[in-house]
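Quick note —
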Amino acid sequence: MLNKLINTHLGIISDLEIPNFHRFLFNKVEWNSKALAIIGARGTGKTTMLLQHYKENFNDPNKCLYILGDDGDVLNTKISIIAKEFYLKGGQVLIIDEVHKYPNWNQEIKNIYDKLPKLQLIISGSSNINIIKEKYDLSRRLATYHLPGLSFREYINLELNLKFESYTIKKILDNHLQISQEIKTKIAKKNNFKILQLFNNYLKHGYYPYYREGLTTFFSKLQNSLDKILYEDIPASFNVNTTSIVNLKKLLYLIGASHPFTVEIASIAKTLGTSRNSVYEYLDYLTRAELLISAHASGGAAKTVRKPAKLYLNNSNLYYGIGKTMAFENKIGTIRETFAFNQLTNNYQISVPNKTDILVDNTYYFEIGGSNKDFSQLRDLKKSYILSDNIEFGYEKRLPLYLLGFLY
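Predicted structure written out below.
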C-alpha cells in the first residue's frame, strides 16, 4: 500500500507546477510543530503551500509523504494504519490534504498523534471543519492556521514580481499618502502599470490564485469551485440533506443578486420554504465555508447577535462570477464594501455602526464610496475616515480604498 501511495505522491508532484511565490502565511507557520492544520476555503492555495514546504525541505516521499483524504486507496485503509507503516519505514512527516473528506478524520488524527509521537502531522481542510468536535477535541493538539484568498498586495506582488510589505491599519491611516506614493512609483516602473487598473482587475478575478491558469476559464472554474463547496465540502462537515443543499445555493444567489442585501430572516424563510432556524443554520454554513461575510451591528443586544446587520458574498470575485451566471448588473457600491470587509476580517474585529459603513476594532469608523464621497455621515465621530475608490492618493482623512488590500 505504501509504495502505491508514494507513486501517487510522485505523480501529483510531477504534474503540478509549483510556483516560487509564497503566500503571506507561509513564513508565519511554525512548520516544526508536532501537528498543524492549515484551513481555508477551496481554491485559496492550501495544496500549493503544502507542496512548497515538501519540495523546499524534503523532496523525498520516503521522509515526507503527501496523501489526499479522498484518495480511493486512502479511503480503503485507515489513515492511522498508513501512518504507522510509513513511520516504521523511516517516515518523518505525513501531510494529509483535504482531510475533511475522510470519514471520522478527527478520531484518526487523534490516534496518530497519541500513538506515534515522533511522526509529524500536517493536515489541510475546509474552512468549516470543526477542530473541536465532541470527544475528539483536537484544539490542544493542532496548531491551526487560516489561509484566506490573495490580498490585493499579494496579487500585485504575484503579477509584477514585486515585494510590497503589509501594513497595520494604524500605519496606513497615519501614513497613507507616503505609502500610496511609494506604491505608485514602484508599480510605474513595471511597464508603467497603474494602481487603479490593477485594483479593478483584482476585484474581478484576483482573489483566488488559480486565476493564473487563464482568465478565459476563471469564471467557469469559480462556478465549479462553488458547486464543490456546496455539494461536497459542506455535506462533509455538516449533516445536510439534498433540500438543504438546494436552499443553500438559492440563498447564496439571492444574496449575490441583491445590492445591498436586506437581512429579513422571516422573509428569507418564506422565500426558501423553510424555518427561521434553518435560515440561521444556512447562514452559518455559508459563512464558515467562506462564501459569505456576516457583519453584525455594533453594540447589539444579546437577542440580536444571531442576526447579521449586513450580508455580503465573501469577496468581490464571487459577485462578478455569480453576476455572469445570473446576468444581472453588478453594483460597484456593494463591490467596494465587500472588498473592505473581506480584507479587514482577517486581522481585525469589524461591525456595522449606525451612522457609517464599518467600525474596526471599536475604534476606527469608515465610510466607503467614490472619489466624491463627502464627510456628512462622519460628523462628530472621532477617528473617522473616508475610503474612496478611483483615487490614487488621499488627503488628510480621505484615503484610497485599495490601501486596505495591504493589510496582509
